[in-house]
Amino acid sequence: MIITAHPRGPPELSELATILQKQLSSNFASATVVVVEQCPDLQQPPFNLAAPGLSGYPWIADIGGQSNLFPTPNYKAQYSLLQLARNLQNSPSGGAVIGAGAAPFQDIGRNAELAPNLAWEGYGDEDFEGDSLKVNNLTRVVLADRGGVPSCQRTTSTNCALMMNLYGSSGRPGPVLKVTARGRTGDMNFTNCIRFGLRDTYGDSRPISMGGVFLLKKGKAKFHVMPDFPTADELPFRDREQLEKEWLTYHVFDAPVVCLSVFHSADPEGLGLRMEHTHCFETNGNIKGGHYHYDIQDGDEEVEYEAYLHPASTLYRIDRPRS
């Protein structure tokens, strides 16, 4: 495993709040961004995270990449979320990860979307295992069958594959950005609106990497769900257009949907970062979920978001594909 570390020096949360308030107000009819000194317990509904907060040694990791899927899958790209946390110097005494990536085909027997939502406490051995290690695994797998019918399921696996974008921390309550937005008036989706505001403010001189959770409270949004791997006769993918138009399945789901997000304002080091990645799930059913694209404003129905976000102090790039 090849790991490179890239320190980030994010501004104060109050400075970020001012920037995001202005940016979101240009794209939504109503928006607020404030610093909440004590994050609400995100373990509780409607967010249902595995840890109560986003604070304590915040980091982001970009693992693998889309080149592990296209033009043919790299079946050797298999990872343990807990071992990744140890490699990134997370304390085994406690921590949490959330994010977006590919499901562990090595465990579930097929390809799918993954919304990792994992926390742990206690001490394990060097393999991050042991009787004293307590893991709270609320990770979801979102699948699509050959007919494109989606399903959202809990998984006991603590692994992932191919590509993953993680936000990690000690999982403690602490100061965060609380973001609300309602009634989209512009062309940008929720996450791109935020990251473009950071990009336009700081450019390449001060890249910001951020992660957290947001709730699609009202309205509806478009998602894609990866089906199982193509058969040997169907590979390799001719091009990305074929992958996107002929292989992925697309769905529109109504709120509420919980979304785990990681994004960057810029990639000045040329790390081949996935600039935004958001995977979503429902907590009161077994259908809704997948990769977030954008909300859909339909008639008089307004979309509404609520988010809790935090910048990372360190960015890790892991096993960047050569192509």
UniProtKB/TrEMBL annotation:
CDD domains reported for this sequence: DUF1907
Highest taxon in the source lineage: Eukaryota
Subcellular location: Nucleus
Xref: SMART domains: DUF1907 (SM01168)
Occurrences of domain DUF1907 (ranges): 19-318
Keywords tagged on the record: Hydrolase, Metal-binding, Nucleus, Zinc
GO molecular function term, any single one: hydrolase activity, acting on ester bonds
Primary localisation category: nucleus
GO cellular component: a single term: nucleus
Keyword Nucleus: yes
Subunit-structure text: Monomer.
The name this protein goes by in its record: DUF1907 domain-containing protein
Species per Swiss-Prot/TrEMBL record: Penicillium argentinense
